[in-house]
Design a protein that fits this description.
- It is a single chain.
- The chain is built from 6 helices and no strands.
- The protein is mostly helical.
- Helix 4 packs antiparallel against helix 5.
Length: about 160
């Protein structure tokens, strides 16, 4: 089985251009595959063609992973904006509510909510060696939050 099978039509056109073949514009995938396999370069220097195809596949994977990374980044930004919008709505509702809360009483709750949102939107590391740091920082945040809440309970109870 040939390595050419892994390529899409665009990839086949790029390989044909790389080995100095002229492919018709409306050529189908099968025609491009046949054109490459019947070329003198493919028959005489298969390793060169194989290297070109492997490089093309590697570039495609790299571009795809970069694209996925960008999509993930945009998704995280969107989640953060949603959380900030929710926070703004909560602040508006808190200020418009008829319950008489003292600003000193409601402010710590909002601060806790902000800190929780920031903790939950921490970027998750992609490399395995930074997981230790990630979990250590998350543990510190949780400990700080527990201590803060414990202090609030003692103050209000």
């Amino acid at each position: 089985m040939s390595i050419i099978v892994k390529l899409k039509k665009v990839g086949l056109k790029l390989v044909a251009e790389e080995i100095d073949l002229t492919a018709p514009r409306e050529a189908k995938r099968v025609d491009l595959k046949r054109l490459i396999e019947e070329s003198d370069v493919f028959k005489e220097d298969y390793e060169f063609v194989k290297t070109v195809i492997e490089q093309l596949l590697e570039e495609t994977k790299t571009q795809e992973s970069e694209h996925n990374g960008q999509l993930e980044l945009e998704r995280l930004k969107l989640e953060r904006v949603k959380a900030e919008l929710e926070l703004a709505q909560l602040r508006t509702n808190a200020s418009n509510s008829e319950t008489s809360f003292n600003k000193c009483e409601t402010e710590p709750c909002i601060d806790v909510f902000i800190k929780s949102v920031r903790t939950l939107t921490i970027k998750v590391p992609s490399k395995s060696e930074v997981w230790g740091y990630f979990f250590a920082s998350l543990e510190r945040e949780l400990t700080a939050t527990k201590m803060y809440r414990k202090g609030l309970r003692q103050r209000f109870c």
